[in-house]
Amino acid sequence: MAAAQDTTSRDDVRSGIVAAASQLLREKGASAVTTRAVAQAAGVQAPTIYRLFGDKDGLVDAVAEHVMATYVAAKAAAAETAEGDPVADLRSGWRVHLEFGLANPELYALIGTRGRGGPSPATAAGIEVLRTRVRRLAAAGLLRVDEQRALMMIHAAGNGTILALLATPEDRRDPGLSDAMFDAVLSSILVTTPATPDTTMSAVAVTFATVVPDLPGLSDAERALMAEWLNRSLSTPHNP
């Protein structure tokens, strides 16, 4: 009985520390999540954190798992029940991952402070979900690179896109970057990339801009004016 109570008490203390660290992360940012600050917020001594988590990396891992638990569980459930187009399923997972990353910038910053080279347990769980999606592509005969290479390319591109967008002021972010990066990865890993003709104004403008310098019957000033119109059109966000 005493052992059970000790275990319960230990779990309660651990949960309290993780909750305190998560609150610091949410309210004050990644730089505020120090061993000393977390211990003070949780009402424990610093040695307690080292005893329960080993070191700060262990605490960071626990916080990341706490924040990402529901997210990873939802991804896993979707991967296990998906029966449709594996490419569409992968695209859906990519978008959810990007949305989560942009909504939780401090978590990404905190994970980046880990001293060890390996991924956090929460990140590793997410990679396993991605591995399931990549396996579906392979089973459908769609991959032209091996599964591990495809997995790491998608994972690296996803994280890189999140970090690039987070490093850009929100009002200056390219809203089409995420889909463009995903399509670029697809073109590198798939035997054939599903082709859907792009007839949006932007696509037409990009194509037309390539021939403007060679259009006959126009003066240099007219060509310059047309190029200016096209550039203005391309720099203005369009809803898909």
Please describe what this structure looks like.
The chain has 240 residues and is mainly alpha-helical. The chain is 71% helix and 0% strand. The chain is built from eleven helices and no strands. The termini are far apart. Residues 1-5 and 193-198 have low confidence and may be disordered.
What's the quaternary structure here? single chain
Please give the count of helices: 11
Helix and strand content put the structural class at mainly alpha
Number of strands: 0
Rg: 24 Å
The helix-strand sequence is HHHHHHHHHHH
Largest sheet: none
Strand percentage lies at under 5%
User: Which ranges are low-confidence, i.e. pLDDT below 50, for 5 or more consecutive residues?
Assistant: 1-5, 193-198
The mean pLDDT is 80
Helix content: over 70%
Report how far the terminal alpha carbons are from each other.
62 Å
Tell me, briefly, the overall form.
elongated
